[in-house]
């Protein structure tokens, strides 16, 4: 099991937009940890998307909750709306 980030500083200076997605009740990573990671990211645009999910593997276990907001953000990105830092 992977229990740490392979390159712990790689996410800190991203050159493209970053979307951090978390389930509010993720049993492996508390929301406080996810927020700390999010706050340390330097990127042209970043967003933290918190779902009401209680699982860790959102793509595998809660796709119905994940897809609508994810597709919305991807649509914004593809239309050039996510270009400035937030």
UniProtKB/TrEMBL annotation:
InterPro entries assigned to the protein according to its UniProt record, in alphabetical order: AB_hydrolase_fold (IPR029058)
Source organism superkingdom: Bacteria
Record protein name field: Peptidase S33 tripeptidyl aminopeptidase-like C-terminal domain-containing protein
């Amino acid at each position: 099991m992977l229990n740490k980030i392979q390159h712990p500083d790689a996410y800190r200076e991203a050159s493209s937009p970053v979307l951090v997605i978390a389930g509010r009740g993720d049993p492996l990573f508390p929301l406080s940890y996810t927020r700390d990671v999010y706050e340390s990211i330097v990127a042209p645009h970043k967003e933290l998307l918190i779902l009401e999910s209680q699982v860790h593997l959102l793509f595998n276990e809660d796709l119905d909750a994940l897809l609508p907001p994810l597709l919305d953000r991807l649509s914004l990105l593809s239309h050039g709306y996510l270009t400035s830092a937030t």
